[in-house]
Write a structure and sequence with these properties.
Layout (H helix, E strand, L loop, with lengths): L13 H7 L14 E8 L3 H13 L5 E4 L21 H9 L3 E4 L12 H18 L9 E3 L7 H6 L6 E5 L3 E2 L8 E4 L8 H12 L4 E7 L12 H12 L4 E3 L2 H11 L1
Parallel strand pairs: 1-2, 1-8, 1-9, 2-3, 4-5, 5-7
Antiparallel strand pairs: 6-8
């Protein structure tokens, strides 16, 4: 059994004990949060998104769901390992109304490193246009754009902040604490098999440092998509995370809005 199945830090000692207990300051108020965990669910698989939202709601949390703008169309051609039913904007509007974060994850799940700069900009604009027309309340300047395959380019990274609040691309899972002007978010992922051990390892790393923000790019639940996790694992993971006093479980956009505004 992986050591983090029982304890996030694995080893006994003062650190593990302190994380297991509520942290208080004078007056009985909880200490401010010092760790943020964002599980970023990509591609908008219908069944997985519905179940993910239900599990997050069970723990009074908001899920971070990133969807492909054209995936609901009959002419959409997904990568081979993603060929499962996708949600449509009726579902995305419902989940957003229930308090979940629904953000753009490309127009057609293309690797923009394989396109010219102008072609990449056009595909991103087409994606944002679909979201602006079909997702109620969507505002590009309050959005986090998640690159398909986490594949960005330096030119697109320089241009994209003129269109959206922030973007997510490849890099390490641990990001600095949200700050004003932070537009580039990085994440890690694991696949094509089950990625639960990889998530546990990254949470260990996060909680072993004084503060930080972990973004892990996962996809579907159970057998859906690349690098899935089990629904039962997600339920247990969220239960453990909400019990750690220093941890705030938030979608990416909500983390930026909440903590940058407080700075």
């Amino acid at each position: 059994m992986h050591p983090t199945r029982r304890e996030f830090l694995g080893a006994a000692g003062a650190t593990a004990v302190s994380l297991a207990l509520p942290l208080r300051v004078s007056g009985g108020e909880p200490k401010p949060k010092s760790h943020i965990v964002t599980l970023s669910f990509d591609d908008g698989f219908k069944n997985s998104s519905i179940k993910t939202a239900e599990i997050y709601e069970k723990h009074k949390l908001s899920a971070c769901i990133n969807v492909v703008a054209s995936a609901h169309r009959k002419d959409f051609r997904p990568p081979d390992y993603h060929d499962v039913p996708r949600g449509d904007f009726a579902l995305w509007n419902e989940l957003r109304a229930r308090g979940h974060e629904v953000m753009p994850h490309s127009f057609q799940h293309a690797n923009l490193q394989q396109f010219s700069f102008e072609e990449g900009k056009d595909l991103i604009r087409r994606c944002l246009d679909v979201f602006s027309r079909k997702l109620k309340g969507f505002e590009p300047k309050k959005a986090v754009y998640s690159f398909a395959y986490n594949a960005s380019t330096p030119k697109l990274e320089a241009w994209l902040p003129t269109q959206v609040m922030a973007f997510r691309t490849s890099g390490g899972a641990i990001n600095p604490w949200p700050r004003r002007g932070q537009v580039k978010l990085t994440c890690t992922s694991f696949g094509p098999g089950n990625c639960e051990h990889a998530i546990d390892r990254e949470i260990d790393k996060l909680l072993a440092q004084q503060s930080g923000w972990m973004i892990f790019n996962t996809h579907g639940l159970d057998d859906e998509g690349w690098g899935p996790i089990r629904a039962a694992y997600l339920d247990r993971l969220l239960e453990r995370l909400v019990g750690v006093a220093s941890v705030d479980v938030l979608p990416a956009g909500a983390a930026l809005s909440k903590y940058v505004d407080q700075a």
